[in-house]
Predict the structure of Inositol-1-monophosphatase.
Amino acid sequence: MYTLEQRLELAKSIAIKAGSIAQQHRDEGLNISSKSQQDFVTQADYAVEQFIQSELKKMCVEDGFLGEESGLEITSGGMWIVDPIDGTSNYIKGMDYWCISMAFVVDHQVQVAVIYAPDRNELFWASAAGGSYLNGAVQKLKPVPVDKAIVGLGLSSRRPLEGYLTVIQRLVNDGFEYRRFGAGALMLAHVASGQLDAYFEAHLNSWDGAAGLLLVSEAGGKCCDFLLGQGQYLGNPMLVANTQLYEQISTSIGFTLLPKAS
Ligand code: IPD
Ligand code: CA
Ligand code: CA
Ligand code: CA
């Protein structure tokens, strides 16, 4: 039986290899198909997920698996939640803002998290009560005043544009700056490292959010109950923030009024 420390080391090494596989596919040429409007998938998304799942299976036979591209395999043990490429549109365009995201969850609590952005040489990891790291350096958030705070936002075709525009309007009215870089998992990791001071998305799946959630909480940030404490893995609202900004941002965007996924 693997310990959490062993799982963390395993996930780091798998994520690094997965990053090379994704880069190699891009170098050799991508086959791009469309799931829905502005929502793409390539052969690399499938290949990377298949690689990660089979590597995990070799060492952690008893673990379950949930991946964006291949669905769910439940076992009686904990579960890996994987986004093989987060920010697929950026990846396709040759931008560097994309990552591989892996989380290990036990009883709906994230225990291990790894996010790797290969084109940026950024390897983020965290374990429950073990701290949050970027390339080996411990991450601890410091207070940021509102007039210097940047809130990361996410938008997908899964939610109407109207709500997103309202959120921008409210945040800007309340003195915040905002950014949208198009890879939710990596933006969450950048909250943990202080490049962003919060991240909000109205409808986020667990493979986008689970790893980043632990990175931020272990860095001392405040996080919503993203997995709702009961294993709701699809389409939840996500808010994480530098702790002293959380309530203000939550009030500004009306976070507590958002419907929970049913
Ligand atoms: C998407 C990105 C995007 C976020 C969406 C996700 P994908 O993931 O993280 O930034 O706003 O909700 O679906 O499809 O690039 O893995
Ligand atoms: Ca996708
Ligand atoms: Ca994603
Ligand atoms: Ca993805």
